[in-house]
Write a structure and sequence with these properties.
Length: 200
Amino acid sequence: MLLHAFLECSVVNGPGRRAVIWFQGCELNCNGCWNPNTHALRGTTLTINSVVGRILNAARAFALEGITFSGGEPIHQISSLVQLLFNLKRSAPALSAGMFSGYTARELDEGRFHTYQALNLYERCVAWTNLRAMLDFAVLGRFNKHQLSSDPLVSSRNQELRLFSDRYTRADFEAQAVEVTIDPDGLTQITGFPTLATLR
């Protein structure tokens, strides 16, 4: 898996305390993207099992409710993401899963998305079906800097928050906020919604 960053605990990327994984690599190039450093196909390569181990360690240390995947574009590495979630659900079935993707629900359902693995249309559709079955929620659609939204988790009005399980209702998603984390070595991570959000 090619990853950009890992945050052990966040409270602005979905309900409750959540680990956040940012994938590296994005072919969508949304105008005004907040994470342009995640676009190039270069970064830290990790094994699926090592990422699962980091999530499980964070879950124990911070009493996490779930994990959220962002990017970059997670769908570009859909095969790895499906395997990661499958392995994670075996070890920690109570953890919820969410995702941010620039693809629309229709594009995903029809298999009209790019992957870094060589998957044909049928394989892409099967991969999305398997991924969707393990997700509790996702924010879908291209970011549009001219249609900024203040709705929970949705950064532009053309995007939508989709619920894929009955674990959450829309009332479980809090107002947008931005979060600044500084680790003991001084690494600073900013996540959330810096355009319209409040600081946490």
